[in-house]
């Protein structure tokens, strides 16, 4: 089940506490025994979650979605990641001579 489809009552039970820049949430799979911490920035945006999903992938996790849905805490600002395949691309310091309306393949 997707977090956005959970009833508000269930989202409310996921949130354990909010203190300063830390929000403690229950595990979805083992809620009676496991909690995770979501930290926020000085600006109030979510920064990270201690759950394995977020720690291993770096992507937004279901705990972050729950906190966003129930508490309205903003997601972290988008920062594009660089895949390992992009490291194989040539690096150049030459300036492009194309204009925004000129296709790249035309000379």
From TrEMBL:
Region (Disordered): 77-107
Statement: the UniProt record of this protein carries the keyword Zinc-finger: yes
PROSITE patterns per record: ZF_SWIM
Record's keyword terms, sorted: Metal-binding, Zinc, Zinc-finger
Domain SWIM-type: 36-72
Compositional bias of kind Low complexity: 80-93
Example GO molecular function: zinc ion binding
Name of the protein in its database record: SWIM-type domain-containing protein
């Amino acid at each position: 089940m997707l977090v956005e489809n959970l009833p508000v009552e269930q989202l409310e039970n996921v949130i354990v506490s909010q203190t300063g820049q830390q929000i403690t949430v229950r595990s979805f799979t083992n809620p009676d025994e496991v909690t995770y911490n979501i930290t926020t920035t000085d600006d109030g945006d979510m920064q990270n979650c201690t759950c394995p999903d977020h720690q291993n992938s770096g992507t937004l996790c279901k705990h972050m979605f729950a906190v966003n849905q129930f508490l309205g805490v903003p997601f972290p600002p988008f920062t594009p990641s660089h895949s390992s395949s992009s490291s194989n691309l040539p690096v150049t310091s030459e300036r492009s001579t194309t204009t925004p309306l000129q296709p790249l393949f035309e000379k």
